[in-house]
Amino acid sequence: MPDTKHDSERLVRGFLGSWQDRDLDVICEAFADDAVYHNVPVAPITGISGIRTIFRAFLDAFAEAKLDIVTLAAEPGLVLVERIDYFTMNDGRKVVLPVNGVFEVRGGKIVRFSDYFDLADFERQSGFKL
């Protein structure tokens, strides 16, 4: 059964909202086993194991994360999201990052997630090197 516009949107909204609760299993359950995660300024990560590793590193570095949706457009199997990501580092520093994300959905799972953002801005604010 093909992914509907509504199902694709609900999956992506759920994934983005799940960061606030910081539960790695819940965050990762949105992804297919062979998914690709691409922070476009750096090399893509293929497979849920690698995705779990990078998401764990993010969770370990940030005390809080909130991914606020500014604009969302959905079609069956495709969701485009303009958002502002708010992170509080463990040392209290704040990161505010404009991001555009592209999500490809198939079979009720994210199969490709590409984020477009200013890498230098993120690294300057966070001290985190990608």
UniProtKB/TrEMBL annotation:
InterPro entries: LEH (IPR013100), NTF2-like_dom_sf (IPR032710). Transmembrane segments: none annotated. It comes from the Bacteria. This is Nuclear transport factor 2 family protein. Pfam families: LEH. It comes from Mycolicibacterium crocinum. Gene3D superfamilies: 3.10.450.50. Residues 9-122 form the Limonene-1,2-epoxide hydrolase domain. Signal peptide: none annotated.
